[in-house]
Task: structure prediction
Amino acid sequence: NRPAIAVAGAGALAALLVLGWVIVSVGTGVLESTLALGFAVLFCWWVGRPLRAAYADPVPETVGPAVGACVLGLVLLDAAFAAVAGVWWGIAVAVFLVPAVGLSRVFDVT
Result:
């Protein structure tokens, strides 16, 4: 149903707001902040398209992939938060997206 999908979108927006607050409060460098924001943009792109499709037509064929995209998108969101601690931490976390996507093709994410 549409309200549940709207809540998922609101949760993603809330996570981005918290990321912005963390970046400002920690006072990271320019490179760390840029990488964190880059991962945040990738996260929005990764989950935005399937969430929009599921909101437009909330049937199992669109909601299932949206849930899977949100679960895999957590890796990008984690990478954004890790990038605040350091560039290499963010990259190290983002690398886990590769096996996660590979495993999602073998096993059902939801």
Remarks:
- The chain has a mean pLDDT of 90.
- The chain has one domain: 2-106.
